[in-house]
Design a protein that fits this description.
Layout lengths: L59 H14 L4 E3 L9 E4 L6 E12 L2 E5 L7 E7 L2 E7 L5 E7 H14 L4 H4 L6 E2 L2 H6 L1
Antiparallel strand pairs: 1-2, 2-3, 3-6, 4-5, 5-8, 6-7
Length: 192
Amino acid sequence: MFRDFHSASRFSGQAAPFKSETTQHRDYKGNRMSSEEIVLYGDDILRKPTKPVDLSNSDLKELIEHMIEVMREAPGVGLAANQVGIDKRLFVYDVGEGPSAILNPKIIKQRGKEIATEGCLSIPGLQGDVRRAAAVVVEGLDPDGNEVRVEADGLLARVFQHEIDHLNGTLFIDRADPDTLAWVSEVETEEE
């Protein structure tokens, strides 16, 4: 299960519960990120398409390492840069095979469909069923600027689609079956 809303009216009349507690996006440079710094639903940065990564940024690898740390601490299996207040087109992920990052990613092929339950680190406690491609091919760059092409299915394909949606300003709630969206307690989440 990975944990990564539209209008509050979609949730049985419940008010939108989250807004980032920080009004300014913190610069990763010199500031240690933590899961408390994950941008929460309601912050504008989550709804805007991100800007391409400039490979000349000397702090890029440091940002990626910090994002991996935040993702692990949360815990999650994917984290987009805009979820930590950074307007850059990159995400980190780890589905059990070690952490990695893809910069300027794009999905170039999709096949099949499957439905699975998703959540989001930016909307803690909310889950819902989302239909996504069963397999994808993603192209982008690795942290060294080398071109990469990753063929993914199962959980990895789902993580890639979820995180690329974040980079495009789309949240899982935009794609979820509204009848399946539900708040879960921490106890229920830990049992999964």
